[in-house]
Each structure stands twice: as structure tokens, then as C-alpha cells.
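Weekly puzzle thread! Below is a chain. First person to post its structure in C-alpha cell form gets bragging rights.
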Amino acid sequence: MLDVVLAEVDPVHVAEEWFSLFAKYIGDTEETVNLLCVDALWRDLLALTWDMRTFEGSEKIRLFLDQRNSSPMRALRRTEFIQLQRPYPDLAWIVGTFEFDVDIGHGTGVFRLVPTATGQWKAFTIFTNLESLTGFPSAIGPLRNPTALPGRAWAERLLREREFGAGDPAVLIIGAGQSALSLAARLKYLDVPTLMVEKDPRVGDSWRKRYDALCLHFPVWNDHMPYLHFPPTWPVYTPSLKIAEWLESYATLLELNVWTSSTVESALQDDKHKWSVCVRREDGSSRVLVVNHLVFATGVGDGHPNIPDIKDSALYTGPTLHSSLYHRAAEFNGHKVLVIGSGNSGLYKEGGPSLGLADNLYHSLPHLLLEGGMAQRSTKTIMDAYSNTLEELNKAGFRTNKGIKDAGLLLQLKERAGGHYFDTGGSQLIIDGKIKLKNDSSIKSFYANGLEFEDGSKIEVSAVIFATG
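Winning reply:
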């Protein structure tokens, strides 16, 4: 039946017809709800709720619209992207994009239409996203700084800005990694005084200190940063030391304020919601900054190694270290090493949609929809494609699973920030027996030459590495 419907459908006509009604009735709750499926999902990022919310089902969407219709979306206009997509043989939808205005700013949206039993196409998902704030444009393009500033004057101005001698920043960000730099760049060009505090001597050192064989797991088109994208010459998978240089260069080129070799010693919020943050600088001096907003951009687990407490560790005569301190295999040549743990220590593609459109399409899928079935189907597809490898790994003793709720990577990342493994050759080494496994008993304690397990077995090893997150 679906094949017949799709063979006869004109996606552009269906999208235009639905959107014209949506734009006409957006201030009328009942008429708007009639354009949606009963089990529709509406995801809003700041545009209509000043929050990040997903409303599930027509009744909750009705309440949401009733609260919003005193100041509804206006000036709705459909943008160019319309596409008939078929994620699975029994599932198809028409995806379209639009723009709109609200009192606080300008927004973009995504809708997905599905055929109903009556033949009418209705919205199954709607996504609304705040793109910019009214009266606060970014200082880019025609709004960039027009001043012809001499070199020395420019350098002196940068130094003054970085030291905040004339006043405290409005926003203080702890950390200067990818997320911190991206946020600092956005805020700077919205004219919001912002300072990053980084404990390492240089921006990017968190990548410089990692193991020699490290490169980014995700391809370059997933990793672009605001205002300054990677050039077309950039490799698909970025080496760790290269991304370190990029991050440092990014901070320099975008003139972002960073205090390196500095740490936050304390942070207290007063009854007016202001933060008093004490920062110790590289020279040992301290300064208390009073800021409106304090952002923790310190990574998962705040960068602290997770090392399990194993009984009698003082008895062990060999070296132990966390994977964050591991650099290269050559240091362990000729040694028997025990590694505790077994994790990892497209919309975005070459020639795909523009980065902004890809971001919107990606974020327009509510996690309730992904967790409610789509992630499980994707996981099954992947596991079926790699069934032979998984079977051989299981035979070798490497335990695999489908993730939390059988949703694969999605919930593992959300709830555990781990529990997954990207295969870069290790799987075949396990299958071939070149990497040995022991997972039939929990660790009981150390002894002088290795580890003893709860079942009474022992393993004698030269070194122990904790790959435990």
C-alpha cells in the first residue's frame, strides 16, 4: 500500500499545501492541531518556550499552543528544502523546512509529513529553533568591524581585552576545548564579554597529551566550528596533534580571551544570581571575577580519570597507569600487559546539505522518536551487517550487546558517556587470538606479580593499564 501511495505522490505539492494551511492557522490552536497526527512530536529549542522541550501527542501540543498563541509565530515562509525520505520499507515521510519570526528573534523549523489512513498527509514531527535574537545581530559579514587599526594598536587592544582590566567579563567558561571555544566565539561576536579559563599551558593540550595513535573518530564534516570551517584540504579523520594546533589557531584568529595555566579555586553565587569566581593565574596571583554566567566546559567526568579501587594495589610490583597517561605501545614491547576495560580509549557528508541545514535536520528528530523505535531499527541493521564479525568476537569471549533499550550507541552516550567501541583493527586481533580476553570472573585483588580473580584464577602481568573512562 505504501508503495502505491509513494508512486503517486508529488512531495513538493503535498508540502506546499500542508504548509500553507499551517502558516494560515498557526494562531488557531484547534486548526493547527488538526494538521498534526494524534501521536505527533513537537520539539522546540528556545524559540517558543525559551527552553529545550519536546511535546508528545496532540493533547500536550494543544496545551503548549494555547499558552503560546497570545504571541504566536508570524511571517512563516517555507524554504527550499523538500524531500521524500524512506528510512525503512514501511516508513516514509516528506521533510520540509521553513523560517518564522517571534517577538524575541528569528527562527527556523523542520516538519515531517506522513500519509494517514484517510489519504491526508499530516505532521508527525515539528521542530522549531531560535536562530538569532531581535536587536542582537552577530558582528559578521556587513556588520564586521570596519575600523582600520594599526598592528601595534590592535595587539595592545587584544591584551587589554584579555586582561579585563576595565571590568569583569559577563560570562566565564571553565575550559578551552571545542565546546568552550565554539561558545566563546558565538558570544564574542554578539558583543558579550567572555573569558575562558584553561588549566593547561596551551589551548589544545588536552589533545597533545593523549596517546600517539589517536585521531578523531568522526569525519571532518561532523566537526566544523562557528565562523571558521575546516578548509577543503583537511583530512577526513583529523590527527590528534593537528586538531590541537587547529584549536589553538582558532582561539588566536577569532581573538578569543583565554587565561591559560589558570585554575578556578572557588565559585559562589549570591542572592542576585551573580557568581564570584576566584581564579589563580599562572604567576600565582589570584583574582575574583564577578560574572553573570558560569559555564563548565570541562568534558565528560570533568577530565578526571575513573580508576577502580582494587584491593591490595600496594602489593603489585609492576607499573599501573590510566589510559589517559598512556602514549605508545613501544614502551611495553616484550611485556605482558593487562588492560582493564574494552571501550574506545549520514547527514554530515561530502556534498551533503549545508552545515546549517544538516544541523537542523539532525536536531529535528526528537529523542523520544529515536528511543521509541528508530534507534533500535538502526542498531539491528548495523548488527545484521556485521553479524559474522560479532559472532566471531562472541566466540572469542568478547561480549557484545545492543545497548540500553536495544538502542545501540544513542543511550550509551546519553546515560553512560561510553560503553561503545569503534573498531580500528582490534576486533580482528581479538578474533585471531592475538589479544587475549578474560571476562568470566570479577577482579578480586592485586598480588605481587599480577591480579587475582574471584574464581581463584590469577594472571601474571608486567603492567596494568586502566581503560575505564
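Puzzle host: Confirmed. Bonus trivia for everyone else. The radius of gyration is 27 Å.
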